Amino acid sequence: MNPYQQKRRWKYFLLAFAVVIASGSVFYTSYLVRNIARAERTRAQVWALSMKQLVNTYDNDFLTYVFAVRDSLVVPAIITDSKGEIVNWRGLDSTKTYNKLDKAELKQRKLQYDPGYFKDELAYMKKQHPPIKFTMLNEPQFVYYKDSPLLTQLKLFPYIQLSVIAIFLMVAYTAFSSSRKSEQNQVWVGLAKETAHQLGTPISSLMAWIELMKDKFNAEDDPLMAEMENDVKRLEIVADRFSKIGSKPKLDEHPVYEVVKEFVDYFKVRVSKKINFELTGNRRLTAGLNIPLFDWVLENLLKNAVNAIDGTGSIHVQIHGSKQKKQIFIDITDTGKGIPRSKFDTVFQPGYTTRQRGWGLGLSLTKRIIHNYHNGQIFVKDSELGKGTTFRIVLKTIRYDKQAKL
């Protein structure tokens, strides 16, 4: 199992564990809410019975007990008659009244006449719970009630709790992820610069040895010596690439077609003759490029395309653009084994590879160079198993030739 798949499995495991915890919290809170809701309905029923006993009881001692029971029931409730008129209430705002008193009495009792408040409360109670019916003085009465503030808060508690936990986890994940990426970047930059430094000495020696061989064997025009020089120059470019990692490279205006063509011409003579290379597209499009780094991108993509082709095949590079979006598109299409759609994003993750000896860093590095250094995009445009894959690079153009056809 490669490291990326293992990391993804751990993510799924932690996500499943979090879902279990969240579900357990919501389930247990719902259990408490149901029990408290039943208890509050019982309180409302007892309050209704106590109101009935107040009318039918003349024993002062028993009345004291009934008053004590009634006053201990703090569930907000309203009693209406058969016509829907409010006849009593409990647990609501005591500064408001549903009986229209004169202004002097309202002022003296520090009350305000607000029938709309009780109507709104009654409508809300009707929506929350079915009424409790009882008979008093041969007249049907209805008790409507709503959840107490405690029960309301308890209903909201699991969602508030889960939201706080989710925010905490997001902040923690972002902080740890940022810290981890920073550490990885530091390691990567240090390794890259040390590699460039280590390559410097043997490259200089090779260049000197080539010059000595030319003089000793009079091989100035030998094509083999020319190819050796090209390869040593390529090593110089590789060392220069590594030295630029971690610093902001300078982007110069270059014709994209010519840059791509130069590298394709260099690359295709170093791979199997069974693979045919084709380059088409607009020759006038220009973009800000850092040649050593951009060649690295092309090298990684073309190497992957070659490795994906089993035997005979072709690689087609097409360059075109959009005037409206001011973008340049570089499509690299191979006739290889293809990539499953589920792996379109995964292939750019560090450590992901399908080869036994691969490090899984090529496409990750390619994406870093395009996104971070060239302010562009790279993605799998299309792929079909057994038929091939198309990678697309998107760059910002610097200017357009008016005669250019995109």
Automatic annotation (TrEMBL):
Listed PROSITE patterns: HIS_KIN
The keyword Cell membrane belongs to this UniProt entry's keyword annotation: no
Keyword ATP-binding recorded: yes
SUPFAM superfamilies reported for this sequence: ATPase domain of HSP90 chaperone/DNA topoisomerase II/histidine kinase (SSF55874)
Xref: Gene3D superfamilies: Histidine kinase-like ATPase, C-terminal domain
Pfam family, one: HATPase_c
Transmembrane residue ranges: 12-33
Domain of life, source organism: Bacteria
Protein name: histidine kinase
